[in-house]
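Session log. Operator J.P. requested a structure for one protein chain; no other inputs attached. Running the standard single-chain path with token output.
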Amino acid sequence: MTYRLGIDTGGTHTDLVLLDEESGKVWVDKVSSTPSDPVIGVLNGITRVLDTASASPDDVSTVVYGTTVMVNRIIQGDATISGLITTAGFTDVLELGRSHRKGSIYNVQWEQPAPLIPRDLRLGVRERIDFRGNIVQQLHEADVHGAIASFAERGVESVAICLLHSYKNDVHEQRIATLVSESLPGAYISVSSTLSPTIGEFERASTASVDAFVKPRLAEHFKHLEEELRRIGINAVLLTMQGNGGSMSFEAARQRPIRVTNSGPVAGVIAGAAIAKTLEMPAAITLDMGGTSTDVALLLDGAPIEVPSDAMQGHPVQQPTIEVDPIGAGGGSIAWVDDGGALRVGPESAGAHPGPACYNEGGTRPTVTDAALFLGYLGQSAFLGGRRTLDRLSAERAIETISTVLGLSNSAVANGIMALAAAASLRAIRRLTIARGHDPRDMALIAFGGAGGLIAAPLAHELGTPRLVIPRNPGNSSALGLLLTDQRHDVLASFLTSLAETDVSQLNQAFETLETGCTAQLAEDNVPEGARKLSRLVELRYVGQTFELIVPCPSGEVTPATLLQLRHEFHRLHRTRYGHASLTDPVELVNIRVTGIGSAFRPRAVPLASASDGSSPIPTTTRQAFFGSWLETPVFARDHIRKGDSIAGPAVIEESGSTLVVPPRFLLEPAADGSLVIYDLEPALPSDHKSSDNFSSSLRSI
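Structure written below.
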């Protein structure tokens, strides 16, 4: 037998999925992450999941890895010393940025993120290329050598290179890269015209700077992981997840780590899209709540939304990516009281160590997990399949540190903590749906992650979504999503022109050049020729807009009729995405792209066993749980639920990596694929102010 292994390393837990390629059988595991060296947690998890399946390391044919290491490097500030070489007179480009201010423009306390590369390491060189790609001033190589000498003196580990209009002509950037590699042979180099040959000096400079900042540590991380996997006998193909929803080889990731942005969260969205397709749900919301954070995303027409660029902790990254809205509220998020006496949750997390107070590993501050345990949603002995015992008394003592300050009961504070954690997700979902003209009542909510099932039902009630779906092994959905990804490479180029006035012969030539480059990247990743598929895309906007939409371009020769077709599709997408379209306004072509796909293995679906005897599922136990008042609540093992079963709330469904709370007036019925579908029997409507329980009442008031 051969297996595929998905590994998702988060801030709190490392999740693993082992898939039998022949039978489709799946084994899952979840272990504590080891932030000091994430590879240790990965190896611990691999040992456990292989032992569970009675498999050996040499049985693994493919490993797909997702990680938050890149984001964590930026959040923690890291210790990377990076330098930037740019056109003389433009060394402050990272600080000048754009006029856009994230969040409210009236926030007088807003602080611009500090550049990843300090001003004294941003050095200019004399040269100039105009917007047509013509050389106006030759490169002064003496300036380059002077910058290199300064970098050597300061111990610079990586160098970002970004010059004006290099997207049109990269000859000077490539020459600088050559000089740096010759004089600083150990330095990592990030060239903006290679990473993102598109319009936008600030965005290109930021992209190159982020890439340079994370490249030394991330390259070391992938090298270390590969060495350790080989050491334990795994000689499989090694792939890692990209932010665009595809995967690529470890070697490609070492060369361009910028593509690994949001790899873990994006894998969860890919898993959600697969579930939505199976259950025939063209529009859905995905909610991935882990130990450190929660990620929400939107599925339209059965697919995730792809955007041309993203931001890493406020630093623009000009790379295609799946749109995910991260929230600093997870199962390990810490509750606290602000200076005004208000209860808050997150963004600080207890992490894997010391973890929530109920872990009894040194944590004393209350977390979402402590609140869920105190309220009876979590059991003391079922966490992580019984491998970790949770101490309810320790959770209660932690909650008391807040209830004493606020003068409230422990139940009220714990309920408030859960409501605040859910409210953060509710606001994010409304930003993606209602604020853009999408009605969540026309969608399903797909919730997963270790803590997703704790808040999903109240969220679905407030949103009015008709179906809440909890997939199989929800605590490991992101790791499963890794195994559903195709290998992928994107090649981009700027092509700024009015769409109506586009020279189709030049556009066809530009697409052919990109297709050649994309085919070469797929070949470097060892994608067989017969498994390769190329698709063309364009980035369009209305004249005067500062953001673009990605529009698929039909294959074959581009003709004037093709341009008209692209215009119509852009209007349709704009209306779908933002609720309106300006049919008479001129449309502008900004960038073109070729996406290369290497088709991945698709696992067999294993149907859920049916309840042929007509009997109802039997609870494994009952316990007191809080739903506005304390109720005796049945607890079911998910493994015992079969197709045809029906469970009315209140109920708790336990499994190894996650727990699902079914409040009163909700009904659970399994789907054929093993997902649990929960229906709200009294959905909240605009004119209806009733709530399903006190949790939802608290949620509505926040």
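Operator note: The chain has a mean pLDDT of 88.
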